[in-house]
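User: Hi! I'm working on a homework problem where we have to compare a predicted structure to a textbook description. Could you give me the structure for the chain below?
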Amino acid sequence: MIGEPVEIPFGRTVTHCTEPISVTFLDLISDSRCPIGATCIWAGMVEVRISVNLNGQEEVFNLSSAPNFGNKVPNIQTIEGYSVELVDLKPFPDTSKKVDEKDRQVVLLIKKVGSGLKE
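Assistant: Happy to help. Predicted structure tokens:
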């Protein structure tokens, strides 16, 4: 899980075996990405709510695929020596089929970084 993209199903938690960290995909706040088969004026964005439990301390935050858009939600958050970055949300929207929220998977990249930093 550390240093490689990890897929976390909606409502599920992924725990690292050798590091004191677990990550939960709590909620899909929005998915306005332009669906396959549609014509859109902008690409859209994703915003998700994530919970990170590190050494027994939980921190909940949102991540966005468009950090420079109006809401200024970051696409990466740093917590006590680890960064958590939003890479993708699967599956991609498609006009030909409806995807239930429970079938979503967030793709995150979790890395070790300098300790004690927060963004």
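For your comparison, note the following. DSSP finds no helices and eight strands in the chain. The first strand starts at residue 5 and ends at 9. Good luck with the assignment!
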